[in-house]
Prior knowledge:
- With 476 residues, the chain is α/β, with parallel strands linked by helices.
- It has a domain at 7-248 and 426-469: Amidase signature (AS) enzymes, CATH 3.90.1300.
- It has 15 helices and eleven strands.
- The protein has helices at residues 7-16, 19-31, 45-55, 96-103, 146-153, 170-176, 210-220, 263-278, 291-309, 328-339, 342-355, 361-381, 407-412, 418-423, 451-464, and strands at 38-41, 65-69, 107-112, 159-164, 179-182, 202-207, 249-253, 282-286, 387-391, 427-435, 438-446.
- An eleven-stranded mixed β-sheet has the order 1-3-2-4-6-5-10-11-9-7-8, sandwiched between helices.
- Strand 2, helix 4 and strand 3 (107-112) form a beta-alpha-beta unit.
- Helix 5 runs parallel beside helix 6 and helix 9 (291-309) crosses helix 11 (342-355).
- The structure holds glutamine.
- Glutamine binds at residues 118-121, 144, 164-168, 196, 302, 414.
- It comes from Methanolobus chelungpuianus.
- Belongs to the amidase family. GatA subfamily.
Amino acid sequence: MASWKDISGVKQQIAASSAEEVTASYLETIEESRINGFVAIWDKALKAAREIDAGGHKGPLAGVPVAIKDNISTKGLSTTCSSKILQGYVPPYDAHVIEKLKAAGAVILGKTNMDEFAMGTSTESSHYGPTLNPWDTERVPGGSSGGSAAVVAAGEAPVSLGSDTGGSVRCPAAFCGVVGLKPTYGVVSRFGLISYANSLEQIGPMATTVTDIATLMDVIGGYDSRDSTSINRKNTYSDALKDDVKGLKIGVPEEYFGEGIDKNVEKAVWDAIGKYEEMGASWKKVSMPHTRYALASYYIIAMSEASSNLARFDGTRYGLRAEEGENWHTMASKTRAEGFGAEVKRRILLGTYALSAGYHDKYYLKALKVRTLVKQDFDRAFTDVDVLMAPTMPTPAFKIGEKIDDPLSLYLADVNTVPINLAGVPSISVPCGFSGGMPVGLQIMGKPFDENTILRAAYSFEQNTGHHKVRPGEVA
Ligand code: GLN
């Protein structure tokens, strides 16, 4: 049976046995899973591992199993965004990040559960039912990349990929006690990522250590001409793995410790900042006054983009098609009525409303103006400090069913993650303690394209603390 291992642990195992045996042991663990983290298993995983063994692959991920969020296109392997409307859809091509992973020798294990079309914070809106948090199976794993975080936390995959539109990598990383990075917008190609809100989202890695995050970024980062927002800029992320924060200037935005924050979350984050001080960094409070408007602006922009991006799912080309109506219109509307879940429908309706004539200026345009103000808060803060630190989520993982009937309370949980996507800056969540037995995430935000400073800060914290080593079931 496979267990919690980082990439170097997996490589040692491969050297002692074979990629095929390691993949087989992960597949066995997944078979026995009780958390509903995977929605599809790649039937060619063992074959791929065997080919790695036979060819003596020397890539940085040779034989390393990877779990992939169900909105990232995988050739020959079903990709449904955990939606009924895409049931049966098998992409004819690989996303850019999948091409890169395969070239590096990675073995794709399968697709992980998510909120339908990445719209959510709990993985409860999935057509396949919720993923359970391995720390407490009555609780949500966070979302929308809940499956990707939970399978890593449960030892069902050493590393995974998620996507982050407004927190979907960082939230489940925090709730499941793993590390997750949202890269700067443009650093990882979105080619093959099924769009929810394309001006906000990035694919991001999830793992048990910061080192593995850097290794994955070295593989998946980089220019791709097929994504018009891809940036041509070279960076070696693993260069950042140095235990040294002497002189690092930390800003602590007071607006991220607002109403409704859990006391133990607050304490864990301040303890972490205290630790940084001990390690030679300095900190000061900073103000980011437009933070309070970020959530409203985010949801208007995200829903508007979603209403346009999801127009393509009409039964003509992909997945589900309702019984033929008398014409295309009835077929398309029946398909959409049957295929989309309640949350997706809500967002398409609200997004269409926000973009419609007469309301466009009042809602969408105004939200874009607020987005600029939020971005300027970051620009201003970064003239004075190197990184910002705050709780990733204001509370630990909540109970399954607790918020699902109250969409507004779910949206409010994203208060500390969405500003980062509006601004396009990079941000990482690392484990920093516990609240009521559930993991707490420290969020470290950086300047655009300065992933290496937040990786160095996160790595140094990890080297000097033990939070990331505690496994589900081990917390006191
Ligand atoms: N919870 C946020 C939303 O529902 C973010 C989701 C995401 O990052 N994909 O939009």
